[in-house]
Fold these 2 entries.
Entry 1:
Amino acid sequence: MTGRPGPRLHRVTVEDVASALPEARPFPGDGAAEEFDLYLGALGFEERCLTVPRLLARRQARVRAAVFAEYDTNVRENEANRGPYEAALGAVCARVTGLGTGVRHYEKQLTDVLDAEASRATGALRVLLDTSVASNHLVMSTLKLLLDQRRDVVLTVAYAEADRYHPTRQEFELNPDRWVGPGSRGLEAGVGEIDVMVQYPGYHVDGLPDSVVVIPGWGRDRARAAISWVNPSFLASPGDRLVWVLGRPLHSEDAWRHDALALINDVGESRTLDVDTFDYRRTLVALDRLFEELSGQRQLTLVPLGSKMQALGCAVFCYRRPEVRVVFATPASYRGSLYSAGTRQVWRVDLGSLRELADRVDGIGHLRLVRDR
Amino acid sequence: MRQRPDGAGEWDGRHAGPEPGTYAEPVSVLSTPEVGVSSSPDVVPGKAADAPGAGLALLLRAALVPGSRLQVEGQELAVERFFESSPQHLVVRARDRLGRLRAVHLLGEPEPGGGGLARLAEDAAALEGATQLAAFHSAGLVPVPLPGDGTWVCGAVVEEWVEGPTLADLLSCRPPQMTGTRLLALMRDVANAIGALRALGLEHGGVSAANLVLWTPPRGGLTDSGRFRLVDCTGLGRRRPDWRQGLVGDHEPVEDRDWLGFVEVLLQAHNALVDTKPLSARDLRLLRELDVLLPALLDDEPGLGLADPATLVQALESADERAARPSDPSREGGRPFEFVSAEHIVSNRTFVALFADSCPWLDRVDGPAPVVLRGPRGCGKSMLLRWLSLRTHLYDPDMRPPDRSTVGFYVSCSSDLQNRIGWIADDEAPRLRREIVHFFNMLVAREVVDTLRLVSDRADAQSLFGLGPEQERALHEFVAASLQVQTRSLGSWQRLRQCLELIDAAMQECHSAMRRGQTLPWTTSETFLADLSRLLTGRVAYFSTRRITYLVDDYSDHRLKPAVQRVLNRVLWERTPAHVFKIGTEKYGSTGVDEANAMIDVGRELVVVDAGSEYLALNESGQTKRLRDFADDLLARRLQWGGYEATPSQLLGTSDWSPYRSLGQALRARRTDRPGGRPGYYHGLECIADLCTGDVHSLLLVYQRILDRGAVALDQVVPVDKPTQHAAIVSVSRELLEQVRVTYPHGPRLYAIATEFGAHVRRVLDDAPKIKKGGGQVPPMCPRIEVEGLWGGLQDALSAEEYDVASWLVRRAVFVELDAGSARHGNVQTLRWQLRRVYLPAFGAALQKNDAEKWDEAAFRSFLRDPHAQLTRAWASRTRGRRARADASQQELFPADGASDARPASAGAAVADGG
C-alpha cells in the first residue's frame, strides 16, 4: 500500500458544470440603467411580448440596436402588438429592425447583424436575448450560432413569465376532451412543418437504432407528428425507444400541469423523466445523463416542444453534444387568444461571456489530474 | 524535446529538459577520450560565466547556422535546422556523413542527470532494439563557437531523428488532430516504451506531449507500422521508487515521473478527443471504456490498478474490442415483437433470425440488376435491403455469408444523408452539386470501408475474402488519393479504421462548407463509386466474382429534396460491370430526371418492385398460399426467437370463415344475427394475412398485440380466443388509422379521406344490394377505387394541389396503388387504388375486394377535394341502382336495409363502431 495518497483522476460531470452556470434571477423593474449593444427578440401575439421592451424603457436602459424576428404564423395577431412593441424598443434604441419572416434566412440575417454590431463594439458585444415570446426554434438557432461561432459576446437571456397560462386548471378539468385525445384542439391547430433543424443535424452515420426524446408541449399532434416522422412504428410500439421529458412547473399551484401533459400526450407506459420547466440547468443535466446512457448504442433525436427555459437548456446540451439531432414540428397556427395572459415575473439569466460558457460546457467529460494535499 | 520548427518568435521559454546546470571544464566524458572533444583548442571555459543562463539555447542558435558542422564523438554532423526547446536545451536536426538524419540535443548542462553523459550513454545504449524510443547514437561534449571570440562547451546527445509531428503539434491544431485510433496507439506505444525502460530499471524522465512523435515509416521500409515514439533521452536515468512502493529505506517515495507524464499525456489526448465534434458512435463507446480504464492507471489498490504496462495494453485491447460495436443485448431474444421495423434491431444475428426469406418479392429484388423497390415505410423495404447487405451476415465469424451473385452495402437516406443535406433547397442544390455528390460518395465509401473493417477482423479475411494488408493499404491509398490528402498514418495498424477517420473528416469538412455556403476546392467526382467498385473487384478476391450493389434506402423527397435527387441521380443511375444501385423509395417520392433533365424510363431500365401491389397482385392471382406462408413465416421466426413453443397455427388457429371470404357475409349479417358476447370476426392466420397490403410492419403489430392481449405464455400451444384476436386486430387498426392524422404533411386531410372512404366501404358492405359473383349473391366489398381515362397519369390529370394530396395518400399507404402494368386494358389506363387493408377492421369492413367504386376523372378529383360529397354521390348512385333493380324484379333483397339510407354517413361513428 501507499505511504500517502497519490494523484487520481476526476471526470468532469455535467453536474459539475451545471452547478457553476448562472441561474435565473428576477429582472427588477427599476435599478441602474444598463447598456446593451444588441437586443434580440421576437414579435408575437402574447401580451408579454411587450414586457421586456417596456421594462428596458422604464429602467432607462440604452440599447444600440434592436432586432426582432417576425413569424409567418398568426401574422394578424402578431401585428396587433407591432406598434407598442416597436414604440417600447424605440424608447431605448434608435435602430429597431424586423428580420422578416421565416427561419431559413434567420441564421444568415443574424450573422450579418452580429458582424455589423461587433464592428461597432469596442469590447465584447453585450447582447440581450428576449425569449418571452420567441419560439424554441428561435432560441435554439440563436444560441447555436452564438456558441458555435465563439463570438466575443456577453449574453443575458430575459424571459417574461406569463401571469396566466392556458389552459387553466379549471379550463382543463371542465372540458378535458378539448385537450386530451385524438384531434383535440388545444392551444394550436394542425402541424405546419416538420424538419431536422439545420443547425442540429446530429451525427447519425453509424446506422444505430433511433431513440426519440420528446419534451412535449400542449399540442398532442405536434409531438406525435414529430415521433411519427422519425419512425411511425414508435407510436404504436414505442418500447424503450421513446423518452418523454415532462415539465415540472415552477409554481406549486401549477403542479397539475405535469400530469396533464402526460395525459394529453398519452405517454402511456413509455419512459418518462421529470424536469423543471424553469431551471434550464436541470434540462441540461437530464439530457446529458440520458446521452451518457444511450449514446453509442442509439442515435438520438430530440424534439424540444417544451418551455423557453427548457429550450435554453436544450441549446446548451446540443452545443455540447452535436451527435444529437433536433427535429422540430411547428403548428399550422396557434390559437393566439388562448395562449397566455399578462406577466407575472420577468427573469434574467446572465450567461456572461459565451466563449467562457462554451469552454466550460466543453469540459464535460474531461479528465483531470487531482493531487490531494 | 521538440517543438515547432525554428522561426522568429517561436521560442516560448517552456522548460521541459534537464535542469539548468553549471558549466564545467571541457573534459571527455566517455571512456574513449580520443573521440571526445577535449582536444578542442577553442574552448574558453572562462566565458561560461558570461553566458546568459536563461538564454543558452538562443545563444547557441545564434552561433550555429544551417551548414555548420558539429563534432560529437568524432562524428561530424551537418546542421540543418533548429527546433524550439527549453532555454537550456536546443534540438538540432543534422545529417551525418552518410546523409542520415540525426537529432542532436545540445544541453546547457554538460553532465545531465545524476551520472552525467557517460552514464546516460551507457543506459541509453542498453535500450538498443526498443523501437518505441528513438535510437541512441552517441553522447559527448561539443564545443560551439560563440559569436565573438569564445567557444561554448555543451553536453551533446545524438539520437535517431524521428520524423513526424509531435503530439503537442497535433493537440495545438484547431481543432486538435486527435482520433480514436491515435489515442489508442498513443496509449499502446507509450505503455510499451515505459515497459521497455522499466525492464532495464530505467526511467525516461521526459514523457510529455512534446517528446512523443507520430512517426510514419518510410515507404519501402522494413516495417509498415506507424506509431508514437518517445524521443529525447537526455533525461534518462535510473528509476526511483514511486509512491506505490512506499518508503524505501530513508528515502521519501517520489512520484513515478514517467507514469505520471504518461497519464498527463493521455489526459491531454483524451480531452482532445472528447472535444472533437461530432464523435462517431465507436469513439463515444471508446471514451466510455476509457472513463473506466484511465482512472485505474493511478489506482494503487491491489487487483484494481493498471500500473503495469503489459497489463494496461491487454486491458486496452479488450476495451477497444468492446467499443467496436454496440452492445448486443441478449434480452433482445425475449422480446421479439418489439422489432417491428429494421431500424429497431441492433443485432445482425437477431436480424437474420427474424428475417422472413419467404418474402414473395425477395427474388425479384436480389440479383445483379438495378432495382427500384417501392413501398411506404413499414413495407419491409429496409428489412429486405439490409438483408442484402454484406455487413448483416458478418455477425458470426465462423459462418460464411450467403453465396450470392452480388455483394451489398446498405446506406439509408433517413439518417445522415437527410440530416446533413436534406436542408438544401431547390435553388441551392445546383450551386452545391459537387459537394452533394462528394458527401454522398463519402457516406457510401464509409459503409464500404466499415464493412471491410468487420471483414478484416475475421479469421477468414484472407482465405475467403482475399482481404489482407496489401488490399487494405490499396483501399486506404485510394481514399487518401481521392481526397487529395496526405495524412500521418499509423501504418498497417487498424488501417481501415484510420481510413474511416479520413472519410469522417472529409464528411465534416464538406458539411461545414455547405452550411457556410462555400464550395470545396476539391471534391470526389460522380465516378468515384464506380472507381471504388473497380478497385474492390480488381483487388479483393471475394468481390472479383460478384457485382457490388449499393443499397440506398428511403430515397424519397421527404428525405432529400427533388433538386438534390436530381444531382444524385447521375450517380445512382450509373451502372458498370462492377457495380449497380438498388434503391428503396416511396412511390411518387423520387424524381425520374437528373440535373441535365435527362429522364430515366424507370420501368424499362430498372427492375421495379412495389411491395403493396406485389402483395395484392399475388392475392388476386390466386397465389394466396405464398402470402400466408410469408405471414406464417414472419410470426414463426419471432415465436422461435422468443422461445415460444407454439407454432403460428397453434396460436392463431384457422379462420371460421370457410372459405374465409365469407367474413364479409358474417359482418353483413351482424345486425340481423345479433350474436351475443364479444365479437370475434377477425381471427385466424388467413384473416391476418389478408390484413396486409405489403405493410409487413402492420402484421407484426397485430401479432404483438394478439400475444399481449392473449397473455400468451412461452409454453402455450392453444389458440388465443377469437374475441381477443378480434379486439387486438381492431385496436391496431384504429391506432394505425389514427396515426394518419399526425402524418406529415396533410395528415388531417389524409385522415378525413381515409375515414370517409372506410365508412363508405362499411356502408356498402352492410346496406348495398348484394352482387352476383360465382353464380351466387354475395355482399359487395369495395375497398377499391378504379378511375378510367386518367391520360398521362396522376400528375398530368390533377391540379398541383390535388396531385400533392393524391401522391401522399399513396406514399403514406392510405391507399395502395396497383402498378400501371396490371392496370392497362385496351388503350385506357385505369388507376386502381385499394384502401390499405389494415384500416378495414376499424370500420368493421371485410378485407377482400369483389367490387369497386368506378369513377371518372372528375369524380376522382372531387373525392380528393371533398371526399364526403363524392362518397355521398357514390352511395346515392348505388342506391339508385338498387331501387331500379328492385323495381324491375319487384323483389326486396334486403328488408333491413331500408333504414340505412337514412343513417348518417358518419365516418366517426363507423370508426367508433369498429365491428
Note: Chain A is about 35% helix and 30% strand.
Entry 2:
Amino acid sequence: MGKSIQADQLSPGAEGSVAAVDDGTETEYEALPGLNFNVRDPHAEATSGGGGEAGELTEYEGAVSGSEAADDEAGLLDAMAGSYALGEAARAAEVIIGPDNRVRVGATASYPWRAICALRITARNGRRFIGTGWLVSPRTLITAGHCVFMHNEGGWASAIEVIPGLNDASRPFGSAVSGALRSVTGWTQSRNREFDYGAIVLPANARLGDRTGWFGLAVRNDAFLRSANLNLSGYPGDKGGNQQWFMAQRAKGTSARVITYDIDTMGGQSGSPVWVLQNGQRYGVGVHTNGASSGNSATRIDTAVFNRMVGWKNEGL
Amino acid sequence: MEVRITHGDGRPAAGALVSVAAAPVDLTELALVADDQGGVHIPAEAPGLYRLNVWIDGECHRSSHEVVDAQQPLSVRLTR
C-alpha cells in the first residue's frame, strides 16, 4: 500500500469537534512512509491504589459519569475528542504477517505521533517490560489491561514511566512516572481477553497531554470498522523499544469486543492505539493487545469500553 | 517458560529486550526486559515453535526453538 508522507495537522480550533455521523466511512491512512467469565459486570472498574496487594486494591464503582452512551449504529464519539496540535499543527503465532510492512516514525514530536507514548513498566515482582500507551486527555493514557495489571507478575504494576514521542535517546516532551492505574474486573479478575484494556493517570503536575495533544475516542459499528483504514503505531521490542513504528491496513474481522487485522506488530506494542482518521480527527477505536497467526488483535472500543474510558479520561483533565 | 540469554562469551545478557515473534499460543504483546542474569519469563507453557527477537547493544538477534518441554528453561546464546 502506498504510505505517502503528508503533513496533516489539525488546527487548535478543531479541538472538541465531533464527527457528525458514522455513515461516512471515508477514512484515511495516516500519512507516513480465560477463565472465570462469571463476573457480574466485567466492565466494572478496577483501580490500583497507593500500594499493597492487588486483591485488596480491586474495587467496584458505580455508574460512570461522562458522555452519554449512544447507539452503536449511530456511532459514539467522545465529545471532548481532543485531536489537536498546539501552535501547529494458534498455531505458531506469527505477529509479523507476511512481509514486515512497518514504517518508522521519524517525526515523533509531531501530532499524532507525539501523543503515543513508550511505556517502561515495572511489575509488582520487579520484572520489567515495555509497552505502549496513548494520551486521551492531559493526564490520562489508554493502554492494554495487561500493561497495568499482570496476572503472572503480582498484579498491578508498581510503576510505569510514560515517554511521549520517544525517539531513540530523544524525549521531546520529557516523561512522567505513575502508579495510578485503571482497568476493569473483566481483566483483573477474569483475565478475559475481551476486557483487556486499562489506563494510566499521570500525577497532577505531569500534564504531558497539554503539550502533545491527544486522541479522541469513538465507537464504530462493524460495517464501518471493516471498511475503515486502521492505523496502529507503537514501540516494538525488535526495534529496541525506543523507536516508534507504524503500519495501517483494513480490518480482517470484527467481533463484538475484538478487532482483528494483519497489521504487523511485535512485543512492545501492547497498548498501542488503533485509530481512524476521519474528517481530520483521530479517534481511537481499539487497543492493540495480542499477536496470533489468525490475526493480530485489539480490544474493541464498544459502548461500555467507551464509557469507562471517558471516566478515566475525565480523571486526567 | 523461563529463558536465559547469554552473550557469546557466556556473560548474562542483562537488559536485553526480548519480543516473541512466534509461539504456539496467542500471546500478549509486551516486550520483556532481561534481568541481571539474562533471564526472562515467557508466559506460555505449550510445546512447539518459539521464535524470539533479542535486542541488545543496538542489534536484533533472531532465534527459533522447537520446544518439547516448556517446563525446562531455554538457553539462548547470542552470536554474531
Note: Residues 1-23, 34-38, 50-75, 78-94 of chain A have pLDDT under 50 and may be disordered.
